[in-house]
């Protein structure tokens, strides 16, 4: 599958300043920008910056960033599922995983997260993909937001739902190990029926076990 990447952008005025949301960005562009030290939900900020630059260089990799002046204050990633995850077993070149979405605390109330998703799906090529997101409560900033697990879950459902993502049932052990975890997905309008069936099949690997 040819991975077409068309650049889109929008500008948001937030209580803490103007934010430019743009992408997919090139690895060169991403490497040239400062990376806010508060972007550390998954690994220390310098390591996360390097990981995003690497993803941006992949044929299928897409990085949409939120930029305040020359500093990245938020991002969302799209990449093929990890080979160790069941979603890669579908062997679909039109299945992408929204691997991470993160915004620093100062800009969380300015619509930045929704803006990152909005710009992501401005690209019509995304209608050729199934996009999934595995939401695990241990990645959520419960302490920083003061929200309960269940409140945070509803926030994530609302943010992801703003671009048509919905909750899908699955028997994946990492999802089912806690009721707050969830699989969300968006099936693009041009995804072939065969791919949709393979996606549904991989959601349940134990349906015939008693």
From TrEMBL:
Pfam families tied to this protein: Acetyltransf_1
Per its record, what are the GO molecular function terms?
A: acetoin dehydrogenase (NAD+) activity; acyltransferase activity, transferring groups other than amino-acyl groups
> InterPro entries, per this entry?
AcuA, Acyl_CoA_acyltransferase, GNAT_dom
GO BP annotations listed: acetoin catabolic process
Q: Which SUPFAM superfamilies match?
A: Acyl-CoA N-acyltransferases (Nat)
Q: Where is the N-acetyltransferase domain?
A: 37-118
Q: What is this protein called?
A: Acetoin dehydrogenase
Q: What is the scientific name of the source organism?
A: Effusibacillus lacus
Mind giving the lineage of the organism this protein is from?
A: Bacteria, Bacillati, Bacillota, Bacilli, Bacillales
